[in-house]
Design goal:
The protein is an alpha/beta fold. Helix content is 35%, strand content 21%. The chain is globular. The model has no long low-confidence stretch (mean pLDDT 94).
């Protein structure tokens, strides 16, 4: 196993009207290459969000950003930098948490959700003591979470729409 030190390379997506915050752990290798969230073609994040909002699946980064902003959804990650092997959340160590106050101080966030177990665990350890806001863990949209079908993910993620 060869660890690589990764510094999160791109900004959160949000605006002053964002009401939901969805947090991942750290961008995957493919997402880092594309310089945007959920870039792996097998990741179901964009399909889930499009289904829940009744919109088309966004193709490029401007469309993805517009979909999120239009639906009052902020997206970021719980980690600012860490050591990791490839895209393996299980290998994450030496975490430097992201400064969520950037979003929380400028948008009326009503609810925080984590995309998967690793993001949830890291949020509870590093972020909750600072924010005091409980985060709801949602099943990961990652292709590594093959036990969850797209339909099942959409059903479970539907709770975010009530908060949007």
């Amino acid at each position: 196993m060869s660890y690589e030190h990764i510094v999160h390379g791109f900004e959160p997506v949000y605006d002053k009207n964002s009401r939901l915050l969805i947090l991942g752990s750290l961008p995957s290798v493919m997402s880092r290459e594309q310089n945007f969230y959920y870039g792996h073609p097998q990741n179901r994040f964009w399909k889930v969000i499009a289904a829940l909002t009744g919109e088309n699946v966004p193709i490029n980064i401007p469309e993805k950003k517009a979909l999120l902003v239009r639906n009052h959804i902020a997206v970021w990650d719980v980690i600012s930098e860490c050591d990791i092997v490839g895209s393996s959340d299980q290998s994450i160590k030496n975490v430097v948490p992201a400064d969520l106050s950037v979003i929380l101080d400028s948008a009326p966030i009503k609810a925080i959700y984590t995309n998967g177990g690793a993001a949830s665990k890291i949020y509870r350890k590093y972020q909750f003591p600072l924010t005091g806001i409980e985060a709801v863990q949602l099943p990961s949209t990652s292709p590594a979470n093959a036990a969850w079908s797209l339909d099942r993910l959409i059903t479970e993620w539907a709770q975010i729409i009530a908060d949007a």
